[in-house]
Amino acid sequence: MPSTMPSTASGATTFSSMLTIGVDEAGRGPLAGPVVAAAVVLCKPRPSGLDDSKKLSAKRRAELESVIKRRCRWGVGVVEPEEIDRLNIFGATMLAMTLAVSALCDQLAQDEGVGEVLIDGNLTPHGRRPEWRWPARAIVGGDALEPCISAASIIAKEHRDRIMRAAAVDHPHYGWERNAGYGTPEHLAALRTHGATPLHRRSFAPVAQLSLL
Predict the structure, then answer these.
(1) What's this model's pTM, rounded to 2 decimal places?
(2) Are 119 and 136 in contact (CB under 8 A)?
(3) Alpha carbons 78 and 27: distance in angstroms, whole number
(4) Nearest-CA neighbor of 89 among 31, 49, 134?
(5) 143: left (phi over 0), alpha (psi -120 to 50) or beta
(6) What is the DSSP string of 110-176?
(7) What is the model's pLDDT at position 6?
(8) pLDDT tens digits, one per residue of 171-195
(9) By C-alpha distance, which of 84, 2, 76, 90 is closest to 39?
(10) What are the residues whose beta carbons fall under 8 Å from the beta carbon of 141, sequence distance 6 or more?
(11) Which tens digits make up the pLDDT trace of 74-129?
């Protein structure tokens, strides 16, 4: 089932009355695990060193995640593999983004409005999810261009990586603590040997093909 994490804010940081929200996702491509989206409103002054999460070292991502969560406002949306298989990965990603923004907006003061939601990529949930109600703009490569999207990419990736490390404890054969569920040779070999788990996406070709062997 889809789930959300509440946004948080603390400290003496300030926010404008019309907010810009950055949104990004993690986990569209893996064979296992959820797709996770994050939504972030940056504080002023914004954290320094923000960039596309894929360009940052694991240590730097963890440091920035701590700063973002402590000083900024954020929300997370999680859509599990069963829902990914039902909706397809694009639909599940649109849902995760909607859940993330909704979780964030639930924490905003009544006198604060959303000016615009900036989303990494070339499509937004507008018109694709009935719950979506905010002005939205897609930005290709936005995770490297817009600091609020960069912050969202960091939160989403760190959140999902933690989920996969925890799942690896219960399913140790697949190397999820190293590959985060992506189809690495190690993961594919384990799939052939041990079969699929409840966290595998049955609609993804390498998993679906197991039933044909």
Answers:
(1) 0.89
(2) yes
(3) 10
(4) 31
(5) alpha
(6) TT-EEEEEEEESS--STTTSTT--S-EEEETTHHHH-HHHHHHHHHHHHHHHHHHHHHHHHSGGG-H
(7) 44
(8) 999 999 999 999 999 999 999 999 9
(9) 76
(10) 120
(11) 999 999 999 999 999 999 999 999 999 999 999 887 657 899 999 999 999 999 99
CB 102 within 8 A of CB 75: yes
Dihedral-angle region of residue 127 (phi above 0 means left; psi in -120 to 50 means alpha; beta otherwise): left
Average pLDDT over residues 200-204: 97
Reading the block at residue 42, the tokens are 């940056």
Residues 20 and 41: beta-carbon distance below 8 Å: yes
**Where is average pLDDT lowest: 3-17, 44-58, 171-185?**
3-17
φ, ψ (nearest 5 deg) of residue 90: -65, -50
62 CB-near residues (< 8 Å, 6+ apart): 158
- The mean predicted confidence, pLDDT, of the chain is 91
d(CA 210, CA 176): 19
The pLDDT assigned to 13 comes to 46
pLDDT for res 14: 45
Furthest C-alpha separation in the chain:
59
- Overall residue count recorded for the chain in this entry: 213
The one-letter amino acid at 185: P
Q: Amino acid identity of 173?
A: H
CB distance 182 to 85 below 8 Å: no
